[in-house]
Description:
Elements: E1 6-10, H1 12-16, H2 23-33, H3 49-59, H4 63-79, H5 86-92, H6 97-116, H7 133-137, H8 141-149, E2 164-168, H9 174-186, H10 192-201, E3 203-205, H11 228-232, H12 238-241, H13 245-256, E4 260-264, H14 270-276, E5 289-294, H15 302-310, H16 320-323, E6 326-330, H17 334-341
Parallel strand pairs: 1-2, 1-4, 2-3, 4-5, 5-6
Helix pairs in contact: 2-4, 2-6, 4-6, 8-9, 9-10
Amino acid sequence: MYEDNTTFVIGAGASQEFGLPVGWDLLTQIRDNSFFLFDGGAYPSRGARAIYEAVYGKHQDDPEMIKRIFQGFVDIHRRVVTAESIDEYINRHSDDAVIAEISKLQIAFAIMHAEVNSNLVPHAGSLADGVNWDNADSSWIGPFARKLFEGVRASEVETIGSNISIICFNYDRCIEHYLEYAIQRAYRDVDRKLARQIVKSMNIIHPYGSLGDISRVAFGTPLEHVDLYHVTKSLITWSESIQEDNLVEDIHEAIRDARNIVFMGFAFANQNMRLLNASVDDAKSYFTKVYATGYGLTPDVERKLKKQITALYANNSEDPRYHNWINIKYGMKCAEFFKTQHLNFMM
């Protein structure tokens, strides 16, 4: 069981272990999917047909809007790779409602497609029910769940995860999907309904939203069965997220009260760090312990990085006493990190 008030901050690198695209891969997919070629047929000869159909289905009576939308796709195709992430690109054009609309469409399309092809999904003909357990166990999520369940008796199953928070910056529902099936597998008398209720009761926060409640849009639903505009209603841009008081307060509470903060697959982008900043004014009665993957980073940035992390939950980001409790594992991906570090944040 994890120590009380442990907060896990999950970034794209953590979902990459499930076969989901990381920031740059997602950007290039969106760039390529935004190139539509029309040569006189009923559908574009190049470009994501599901996106084309979604746009025409919504705006078929407004040809001027359709024209603006496809000009927006041209802009995305040309310019999106000048941003660090699709969230940053949307924020750059936060005064353009069309860019926000069609960027969300592209996100919904790309992540839905990635969920369908995720390595968490069982192979065709597999006897596994909902999860490829071997693939999950080779990632961080299998070991994470086993430690989450550790010490929790069957009579206490509804308390699973009640002492931790998860702040997931990813749009996918891999964590929720896996935990729902893992709880049923771990506890004999738990059915799908109860497992889903337990997962929903956990403090899992998606700062940018997700593809939606898996009870309504199932994990791995084929794109031909998805209403992309319906899915986009659950997605949030950065500029929208900072205006949602309840969401921001939930994030800040999870950071402010944390005794342990565990960053996995997180790139420490300025935009995301600003969302996490709990703006603590008073000195805390304890030192928050921080453990982080640092894949793709080097110790050269450690001083700056520790200062940025400390600023999230302390009133003096320069205080070396806080820095001493920050442990960054450079060059380490999530599966190896969790395997070697989990005892640090266990009871």
